[in-house]
Structures are given as C-alpha cells and as structure tokens.
Amino acid sequence: MWTNWSGGRECRPTATVRPLDDSGVSAVVRRAAERGQPVRPVGAGHSFSALAVTDGVHVDLSAFSGITGSGGRPGRPTVRVRAGTTLAQLHTELADRDLALEAPLELAAPTVGGALAVGMHGSGSSRGSLSAAVVGLRLVDGRGRLRDVAAADLDAARTSLGALGVLLEAELAVVPAGRVRVTREPRPVDEVLDAAFWASHPVVEAAVFPSARTALTRWADPLPEHTLEGDDEDAEGEKEERERTVGVTVAGATGRTALGGAVVVERALPRLVPRFNRAVSRLARTVTATGPMHRVLSSPPAVRFEQTEWALPRTTFAEGARELLTALADDGLEVGLPVRLRVGAPESGWLHPAHDRATGWVAVRVPRGTDHAPVLERAWRVLRAHGGRPHWASRSDWTVEDTVAAYPRLPDFRRVRDDYDPDRVFATPALDAVLGD
Ligand SMILES: Cc1cc2nc3c(=O)[nH]c(=O)nc-3n(C[C@H](O)[C@H](O)[C@H](O)COP(=O)(O)OP(=O)(O)OC[C@H]3O[C@@H](n4cnc5c(N)ncnc54)[C@H](O)[C@@H]3O)c2cc1C
C-alpha cells in the first residue's frame, strides 16, 4: 500500500518498479502499455492531491539521482540533474559547485521530477518556480520512446502534472551561490496586505492566523560576498536563544509556528485555538540568521497536515486573502496553523497556476486529526471567487471545466499530450478530472 506524506491519499498499485537506467524506464512503459496498465511516475509523495495515485504501475525514480553535468554560457550557468534527485541533494550538489537555485525552495524531500510536474514554488515577486528554471528536459513518452523535449514543447513539459511521460533528467538554469540574511519578524496584518510589503525584499512571505492582528513574516536579502563566515553561527545562536526566551518558535514564520502547542490545543480544546493563535502572534519576536538560502530558509514541517493552496492574480491577492481570513474567523474555522501568503512571478508554463500573471499564493493548512473538509471547502469558495487557480499538488474541487476556462493554452497542451502520450498510458482518474481525457 502506497501512502502520501499527509496520509490522506493511498493506493495499491499492481506493481512498483524501480528502473536503474533510461532503457529500464522505456521497457517498463512499453510492457505496461502492452498490458493496458496505466503508468504513474512517483516522487516523494508530498502532493496532497491524488496526482501520484494509481491502480497501475508506480515508477519509482529514486535510482535517478544526482547532477550529471553542467553547461550554459558565461553568466548563465546550467546543470543537468536526474529527476529522482531530492531537493536537499540538489541544493548540496549545487553548493559543492558554488551554485544555487534561484527559486527559494525550502522543503528537502520532494524530487526534481515531482516538483517540476506540479510547478513547485517559493516566494518572491520576481522569483519563478523550479519549472521556470527549466531549459531542457529528457523523458520517456507513452510509447516508451526516449525523447529530448523540443524547444517548442517546453512550456507544455515544464509543468506537466506527469501527463506527458516519465521525466528522466532536467537541465536547469542556476545562479552563483551566495549568502542571505533571513529575518523573521511580526508585522501588522494590514501592512502585510499592502502591495509595498511584497516589493520590499526579493524573497518574502507571511503567515497569518485569521483572528490575529499581527502577521508572522519572513524575508531574505542577499549579503555582500565579504560577510564573515562567523556571522552564521552568531546569528544562529542569537536566534536559538531568543526562541528559548520567548517560549514559542517563529522558525520558518510559516512552517513551524508554535505548531506543537497549537495542534495540542486544537485537539484538546478547539475553542481556545483563536486565543492561543493570537498569543503566538503577539509573542513573536524578530530573529535573524545568515547563510546559504537553502539552509536558512529550510523549515521542516513540525506536524502533518492537509493543504489547499491557490494562485490568485496579484491584483486580487490582498482582497482575496482578507476575505478568506475573515471568513475562517467568522465561521469558527480557525485551526492551529496560519494561512500562508506568498508571491511569485508570471510563469511561461502553459499549465502552471501562475501562468502569464503575477501571482499571490494563499495556502490553508489543516493539521492531521482535525476535520479538514469544512475549512478547505470554505477556502475553495473564497479563493475561486477571486480568480484563483489551485496548486496542482494541493487539495481542491477543481474540474476540467475550470481548467478550460482558466488556462488559455490548454488546447496547446492537449496537442502536445496527443503527441507524447497518444494512448493515455499516463492517464489517471485524478488527471482526467482536471485535464479531461
Ligand atoms: C510539508 C509540505 C510542504 C510543501 N511546501 C511546498 C512549497 O513550499 N511550495 C510548493 O510549491 N509546494 C509545496 N508542497 C507541495 C510539494 O512541493 C509538491 O507536492 C512536490 O513538489 C511534489 O514532489 P514529490 O517528489 O513529492 O512528487 P509526488 O507528490 O510524488 O508526485 C507529484 C506529481 O509529480 C509526478 N511526478 C513525480 N516524478 C515524476 C517524474 N520523474 N516524471 C514525471 N512526473 C513525475 C507524479 O506523477 C505526480 O503527478 C509542500 C508539500 C508538503 C507535504
């Protein structure tokens, strides 16, 4: 039995295969196609949606790991990375080469293939997702053919939901490694809902409890190259000291906010949750840390949860977020995890939720053990009404009719899909529900 990270999705594939090389993947796809079995590549299972669920063949890409080469041109380096590489490993191998991702991705476990399939993003108004960094892709298509994706098809394949084939390797644009100073600071909610806040730092995000007037924010600014190594330890020490003093942690601002405590309160005394959340927000203090971005932004989740996240046009972001916060507070749907607000640049990927528009991301998370349905359904209603498109990895009630209406390049994507997977070897009920067949 396969289960995703949240525990909310499971399936019993007819087989789970772990090919060791490209020809092994081709053979798996050909054999499954001959037998009429669907094929589903699977990464770290960190999607909340049912995208990785199958009753056919699961293809585990964990043997496809590591950076295999570098290229690009002066000032615009690239690396080739295998699709089963976890983000943690990618960060480490890039750092060994004095390189880094431009996208501020903080989670360690997802694989490159999974993160690309769903358009995994961080937060910064001019920062793209991992998909935006793609300059080349190699995959096995639905007929088992090994293909280098043509430039004309790249915007279909950079965020493909796994509908075009089993991704084997990606060539990604990367940047020279640098160090950043991360600051976590409580700020008034009204300030956070103002456009100026999102333009104030290259990497910036916020987390807001619906009933609180203080938001927990976090941003990162680049440091000049000559900053001393010793800063790192000093700031880390200072951060840990402050966190001990305050008694709650704002680590990750959004990721681990006093979660242990909040979730215990939520389970034992749900009606105290808003009061507890307000206290957490009030008690938060400013902390800083310096180091490579992937290290200082890293915030492993403290509890398991279900999540819905929507990409709103930046023009409706503040209004949509405010309406959502009010709705959750007024309807008694506040939980022990804050609503997470992030931003991103317009994406070229035809199926990326931030396609062709500057985006504000709004994520609602419900700790495992709490009935998530009423909270998520409330969020869907509000965020849909503000022109939102759901993150493909998150839970939503999105339908194929919605995709038709919200994604103007869907016809182009379908044309590419007909070429790469004419027999729909990679189709699943979850894909059919949002892409059609
Ligand atoms: C705690 C937590 C925090 C998160 N934070 C963020 C965040 O900050 N930003 C964000 O955008 N998302 C976030 N997510 C969602 C998560 O990033 C995505 O679900 C993740 O990128 C998927 O990667 P995965 O390896 O787990 O893929 P899986 O969930 O295993 O698969 C996802 C999809 O990718 C396809 N796929 C996997 N490998 C391949 C391949 N080799 N070729 C083709 N298709 C493939 C699968 O078929 C499936 O359709 C978070 C999730 C969790 C649980």
UniProtKB/TrEMBL annotation:
Keyword Oxidoreductase attached: yes
Gene3D superfamilies referenced in this protein's UniProt entry, alphabetically: 3.30.465.10, 3.30.70.2520, Uridine Diphospho-n-acetylenolpyruvylglucosamine Reductase, domain 2, Vanillyl-alcohol Oxidase, Chain A, domain 4
Family annotation (Pfam families): ALO, FAD_binding_4
Domain FAD-binding PCMH-type: from-to ranges: 9-177
Top-rank taxon, per record: Bacteria
Keyword Oxidoreductase in record: yes
Disordered: annotated span: 223-245
InterPro entries per UniProt: ALO_C (IPR007173), FAD-bd_PCMH (IPR016166), FAD-bd_PCMH-like_sf (IPR036318), FAD-bd_PCMH_sub1 (IPR016167), FAD-bd_PCMH_sub2 (IPR016169), FAD_lactone_oxidase-like (IPR010031), Oxid_FAD_bind_N (IPR006094), Vanillyl_alc_oxidase_C-sub2 (IPR016171)
Keywords recorded for this protein, A-Z: Oxidoreductase
Protein name: D-arabinono-1,4-lactone oxidase
